[in-house]
Amino acid sequence: QVHLVESGGGLVQPGGSLTLSCAASGFTFSMNTMSWYRQAPGKERELVATITSTGTSTNYADSVKGRFTIPRDNAKNAMYLRMNSLKPEDTAVYYCNRFMGPFDSWGQGTQVTVSS
Questions:
Q1: DSSP label at residue 55
Q2: What is the CA 52 to chain-centroid distance, rounded?
Q3: For a tag on the chain, would you pick the N or C end, based on fewer CB atoms within 10 A?
Q4: What's the Rg (C-alpha) of the chain?
Q5: With left for phi above 0 and alpha for psi between -120 and 50, is residue 109 left, alpha or beta?
């Protein structure tokens, strides 16, 4: 079974930093482009960042470009989201998943709250 576990969220002040982790199993992690998504209350889930299987290419939503990075460690079946210069609008539940899907399995997500 696909298993995705997000962790590392919490409460941070505007301008602060936080690193999220994604642990994956149940599929060949090293063969998959992976993404971070987020969903704020009352809003659609949005794609935040993507990294290709070997980590040679990344892509970011305009809203986070220059502030977030998305490293991965295929040896650990893990992916991370390093967030800097956090803004209140970054507040959301963050999820990881395969970019191409299927999207029939999601982790519990991890809550990031940016507030003073």
A1: S
A2: 13
A3: N
A4: 13
A5: left
Q: How far apart are CA 88 and CA 37, in angstroms?
A: 17
Using alpha carbons only, what angle is made at residue 79 by residues 20 and 99, rounded to the nearest 5 degrees? Answer: 110
**Averaged over 104-115, what is the pLDDT?**
96
Q: How far is CA 96 from CA 15, 112, 116, in A?
A: 23, 14, 26
Summarised one tens digit per residue, pLDDT across range 36-90 is 999 999 999 999 999 999 999 999 999 999 999 999 999 999 999 999 999 999 9
How is residue 2 written in tokens?
């696909």
Closest listed residue to residue 66, CA positions, set 79, 55, 82 = 82
Q: What residues contact residue 56 under an 8 Å CB cut-off, 6+ apart?
A: none
Q: What is the DSSP letter of 45?
A: -
Tokens 């993404």 found at = 35
Which one, of 39, 36, 41, lies nearest residue 60 by Cα?
Answer: 36
pLDDT digits over 3-20, tens only? 999 999 999 999 999 999
